[in-house]
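Task card 7
Instruction: Convert sequence to structure tokens.
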Amino acid sequence: MTEQCDIGLIGLAVMGQNLILNMADHGFQVAAYNRTTGKVDEFLAGPAQGKSIFGCFSPEELVKHLKRPRRIMMMVKAGEPVGQTINQFAPLLEAGDIMIDGGNSYYTDTEQRIGELQSQGILYLGTGISGGEEGARHGPSIMPGGTPEAWNDVKPIFQAIAAKVGPNNDIPCCEWVGPGGAGHYVKMVHNGIEYGDMQLICEAYSLLKDGLGLSNEELYDIFTQWNKGELDSYLIEITRDIFSVVDPETNNGLVDMVLDKAGQKGTGKWTSQLALDLGVPTTLITEAVFARCLSALKDARLRASQVLGGPADAIESFRDSVDRDTFIEWVRQALYASKISSYAQGFAQLRAASGEYDWGLKYGELAMLWRGGCIIRAAFLERIKDAFDKEPQLENLMLDAYFQKAIESSQTGWRSAVSTAVRIGIPIPAISAALAYYDGYRCKRLPHNLLQAQRDYFGAHTYERIDKEGVFHSDWLGLRREPE
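Output:
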């Protein structure tokens, strides 16, 4: 069997295996390779048995069994492992062959690799893939970017295996994103929004459980109802499911037995760092990253809890006085409005990056890429697509008529939930940041005239005026009034 496989895939961890099985289910011949070749044997004897999958035990063997132009997809850890894999395989390839990085690589690494391989005539794609193990197996969201000439050669495979949406379930959640590192940048922002979504849900959970004192059974019922309305999404759905699981060892809710110490892999942090580079206030995602960092300080928090006080008896007083159903609705409104604010920030960052790097991103299409298969899939992404279809260069998602109205109708609950959390001492950094972003964005005049005056006073940094053009500096010390 030579030159018969449609694509080769390197890396047989769960994601790689599931993508291969997905490709085979859709009629593609796949060559599979792993650096530890024992995994190839295990895969062939297990899930791949009887399928159109060919196991390879060396780079040379994999290359030999691929149709031209050869398509090789890497599902290996980002960073140095990707570089090592490229160095191993690139010398075996010819001009016109294609290498694909399907991991969470940093977008500038992808751009550097495109340039390095270009001299050999090798085409390179940096492709974001979302959906976890289940998505990889049954239909992920795929965000391809890189060398445009490579897209048509991988499009039939990627769009076949991607999740499908639309009235007839025939629109693939996979479309060309843009050149250079666009695919990996879009996936990074997707992950940043995911950080924000998860943190928002956790804060809503804390308000209901710690504030209102609801049981997991009650939370299950609430999230079941929420998933039937505006908040319909994968993350709300799995949160509902989590509340139903009982720990077989203790007979308690399993979620209550999980240590409150969150991990992260870095893409949320990258989103925040790059937002700062662009001057884009992606505040909610940044607060979500910091919230995970704070959760990791478990031992320090345990010590602090013994000495740092909050509002005394506030939660008990709140529970005695609040109308339960009214507060639940406030939390729902706060969660929905904050979610809109989060996506508005994410798309604002994509808009800024697209302008900075000349990627030509199509924001409505990006919303549809995330409509199915991925972790942040949600019904309201259809509304985001509609907003950008009406105004492709929409400056901010909150300016769309639908989202304006949605936020307006949620403001009472949003503000009430935030003020209640502050009053009774429950931390909700992401929901608070979402509201602060909204209030700041809609504010005609912010207090930063004073900030500029301070900067000019101590550092002669200059300022602009509201009444005439130009840049000015004043002798604040000489003009000041001496205190009596």
